[in-house]
Write a structure and sequence with these properties.
This protein is an alpha/beta fold. It has 3 helices and 9 strands. A hairpin with a 2-residue loop joins strand 2 and strand 3.
């Protein structure tokens, strides 16, 4: 067994001069940093005083689930002679913010990939490989909520 390690720095950039003197005195802005990768500007969801123009943790969680599924799906298609020409996922995450307990949580994610297959691809196998990709996906295997997949397909030259 190999243990993989992933290191990132999350740098808070929201000190407006008062630190966290009050709930309103600071921005929720942060930067995700890694020495070999572009930085990602983040904040809280705008519902929680965050910057709407920055990625929030909920966005990143949905994006991670979608990207992991896509990478497995493309791999499985390649090794099963299914030629994918294009893949766009319109993934949606749902959060119950549980205002009474102040402990929100993602209830589920729906992946909605639109996959363009080359003429001659076996559509039944292409569809089945989404289920296999789900079972292989590290993100799907790591979370405590369902990740559903509603794929659509198109055949192209």
């Amino acid at each position: 067994m190999t243990i993989h390690q992933y290191n990132v720095d999350i740098r808070w950039t929201g000190n407006t001069g008062e630190g966290t003197a009050s709930y309103q005195s600071y921005k929720r802005d942060f930067v995700i940093e890694h020495p070999q990768k572009p930085s990602i500007l983040g904040s809280a969801d705008s519902a929680y005083r965050g910057d709407l123009n920055r990625w929030n943790p909920e966005d990143l969680l949905v994006a991670s689930a979608s990207a992991c599924h896509k990478l497995w799906y493309l791999h499985l298609c390649a090794v099963n002679d299914i030629c994918v020409l294009d893949y766009v996922d319109h993934a949606v995450g749902f959060m119950d913010d549980a205002h009474l307990t102040k402990r929100g949580h993602i209830t589920h994610i729906i992946l909605k990939p639109h996959v363009v297959l080359k003429v001659g691809a076996n559509l039944d196998i292409a569809h089945q490989l989404h289920e296999q990709a789900h079972h292989e996906c590290m993100i799907a295997n790591s979370v405590n909520f369902p990740i559903l997949c509603e794929a659509s397909f198109e055949i192209s030259e």
